[in-house]
Hints:
Number of helices: 15
Strand content: 5-15%
CATH architecture of the domain at 109-351: 3-Layer(aba) Sandwich
CATH topology of the domain at 109-351: Aspartate Aminotransferase, domain 2
Number of strands: 13
Order of helices and strands: HHHHHHEHHEHEEEHEHEEEHHEEHEEH
Oligomer: single chain
Amino acid sequence: MSDILAQLTADLEPEVASRFLELATSYLQAMEQRQGAVSTPRTPAELHRRFDEPMPREGRPADEVIARLRDEVIADANHLYHPRYVGHQVSAPLPASIWTEPVIGALNQSLAVAEMSPTATAIETRVIRWMAELVGWGPAAGGTLTSGGTEATITALLAARARRFPDAWARGMGGSVPVVVCGEHAHYSVARAAGTLGIGTENVVLVPSRGWRMDVDALRSTLEGLARDERPVIAVVATAGSTATGSFDDLEAIGGLCARHDIWLHVDGCHGASALLSPTHRERLRGVALAHSIAWDPHKMMLLPLSVGALIVREERALEAAFVQKAPYLFHAGDDARIWDQGVRSAQCSRRADVIKLWVALQRYGTDAIGALYDHLCATAGEFHRLVAEHPALEPVHTPEANILCFRWIGDGSLDQDALDARNLEIRERYNRSGHGWITTTVLGGRRVLRVTIMNWMTTAEDCRAIVEEIGRM
C-alpha cells in the first residue's frame, strides 16, 4: 500500500500534470494549423481491435499512458478543433473552459445539495437566474443544469405532467391517455421523453411543417381537434433551432395558442437559445417568455466543452413539483439551506459542477463576445450557403437561419432522385474517410441531403470554399 500511496502522491506534482496539459495544448495548436486529417480512415472494427485487451491489473508509467493517449486515442479521434470539421452540433470549445475542467475534477463537488457544493451551488443559482433574465422572466423563475437536451426535455415534461395531473408521481395517470404535441422536425428526445414517462410514443402528435418550421395553422387545428375529443394535452413542444436545419418556430404565435388552451409550452432551445446573447439574432426567439420552460445547451452555441445543458422554467416551484421525493439523508425539511439544493429539481443526484466552466466562460469573455461568436458562426454558414448556391453540382435545400445548412449534390442533372439519394450518402462516407473534412447527413422531404454545422470559431470562408469544391468534385 505504501508504494501505491507514493505513486498517487507523485501524480499530484505539477510536472506530471504538465505532461497531460502539454498533450492537450499541442493537439489544439496542431488543429489550429490544420495539421493532419480531420478524422480517422480506420473502421470501427479496427479501432475496437486496438483496445481489445485484458483489464490492466498493474499500472503503467505516466509517460506510457500519455503516449497511448497521443498515438492511439487522439490520433484517430474526430478532430472538432480542425477548422474543416463541420459535422454535428458539438463545439470546438472556448479555451478558458477547457482549462477549467481539471479544476472541476480536482474539486469533485456534487451539486445535489448545497452542503456538498457550497460555492458551486451559489454559482449555479446565479447563472441560472442570469439565463432566466435573458429569456425575459422575473424572480420567480429558476431551473437546473442538466446533462443535455434529453434530460432537460424529460424533466420539463415531468413538470408539465405534474401541472396537468398533480397526483401522477404517486398514482400514475390512471385511465387518462394524454398526448404531447410537437412539430414533425422536433428532436427525438420528445418521443424518448414520452416513452420514458409512460405517455407512449404513439401519443406524440406531430404537427406538419411549413418552411421547416411548425405550421401554426396546423397546430391550431390540432389543438382544437384534441379539445373536441377531450384528449388531455400535457405540453406543446416548440423548437428554437431545429437539429436538421436550425429553423426557429414562431414562438409568439405558438405561445398565444398554448395560453388560449391553457397548455404548458416547452421550448427546445438547446441549439438556438444562445441567440438571446446576440443583438442580431435574438429576434428569432420573439415570444420565448410565453413559454413555461426552455431547454438550453451552452455546450452548443455558447461553445462549452461537453456537457453543460440547462432547463429554465418560468416558475421554479413548478419544476420542484416534478419530483416529490423524500430523502432525509440529503434534503432537510425546514432547513433554510434546502431552497438552494439542486437535487429537489433535478433528475440527477451525483452531478459534476459543470456550471463552473460556464461561469468561467462568462467571466473570461463576457456575453458580448459570446454573442459575437454566435453571429460569426451564423455568418460563416451564410457564406457556405452562398458558395453552395454558386456551385453547379450542388443545391442548397434552405437558407440558414443559424449555423446549419443542408444541401444536395446534384451533379450534372443526369441522375434520378433515388440515384441521387444513394450518391449523396456515398459522398458523405467517402469525403469523411478522405480526411479532408467532416460533414454529416440527414433526410429532408424524403430525400437524402448533406448537412454542415459551423461550430468552430476558427472555420474561415476559405475553409468553406475548400469543402464545397472538394464535395462538388465527387
